[in-house]
């Protein structure tokens, strides 16, 4: 597989100089951290078993960038993984460590931007560049039926990765659209900021997952 169509960036991916330099600085500062593009989290049954792909924004500095597993080590992961376990989309116990034994069920988790961005804010060029990995990530799952995007940036990048126009599928919490051979669900991001400010309640988040779980049963 050529580098351009690989679903995973190399550990030293140079494509976004700002993110590359940011990670390099954190490697100096925290050599024990993961400090690299965070790979897609896959279920033990492999990519053929994946029917749902969850797309987050980007690794958190002290979360996925530290631990090397999406949504692991920061608040967003607690709500996400607890909700997934309750819906049968993950099994085990989430203990916020990559060796906690938590397993995904029929689901993979990735990020629209694989490298931690300063202040959690990737710029447009970085989001566009990293789509070179999002596209083959979507394509690698032959039995994919649904994608859940968390937040508007993940939504827009996924819509573009599917070859659609952002204006034709605007982001909205609770959104659901068939496109590109999959059903695209969207939710507000499960960040601490969104839950603290009441933009996203636990009930709202659970209800999106209930809809997806029901959809996947059919
Ligand atoms: N951690 C991730 O891996 N992605 C997010 O979007 C937020 C936290």
TrEMBL record:
Domain Uracil-DNA glycosylase-like per the UniProt entry, residue ranges: 43-209
SMART domains reported in the protein's UniProt record: UDG, UreE_C
Pfam families: UDG
Domain of life from the UniProt record: Bacteria
Keywords: 4Fe-4S, DNA damage, DNA repair, Hydrolase, Iron, Iron-sulfur, Metal-binding
Entry similarity comment: Belongs to the uracil-DNA glycosylase (UDG) superfamily. Type 5 (UDGb) family.
Name assigned to this protein: Type-5 uracil-DNA glycosylase
Organism: Mesorhizobium montanum
């Amino acid at each position: 597989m050529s580098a351009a169509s690989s679903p995973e960036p190399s550990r030293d991916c140079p494509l976004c100089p700002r993110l590359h330099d940011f990670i390099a600085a954190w490697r100096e500062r925290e050599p024990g951290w993961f400090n690299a593009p965070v790979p897609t989290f896959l279920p033990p049954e492999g990519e053929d078993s994946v029917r749902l792909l969850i797309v987050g924004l980007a690794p958190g500095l002290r979360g996925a960038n530290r631990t090397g597993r999406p949504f692991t080590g920061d608040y967003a992961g607690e709500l996400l993984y607890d909700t997934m376990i309750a819906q049968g989309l993950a099994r085990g116990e989430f203990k916020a460590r990559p060796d906690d034994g938590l397993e995904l069920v029929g689901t993979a988790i990735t990020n629209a931007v694989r490298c931690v961005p300063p202040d959690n804010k990737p710029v447009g060029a970085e989001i566009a560049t990293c789509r070179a990995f999002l596209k083959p990530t979507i394509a690698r799952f032959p039995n994919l039926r649904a994608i859940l995007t968390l937040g508007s940036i993940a939504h827009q990048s996924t819509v573009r990765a599917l070859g659609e126009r952002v204006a034709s599928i605007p982001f909205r919490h609770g959104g659901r659209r068939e496109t590109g051979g999959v059903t695209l669900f969207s939710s507000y991001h499960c960040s601490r900021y969104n839950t603290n400010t009441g933009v996203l309640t636990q009930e709202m988040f659970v209800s999106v997952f209930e809809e997806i779980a029901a959809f996947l049963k059919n």
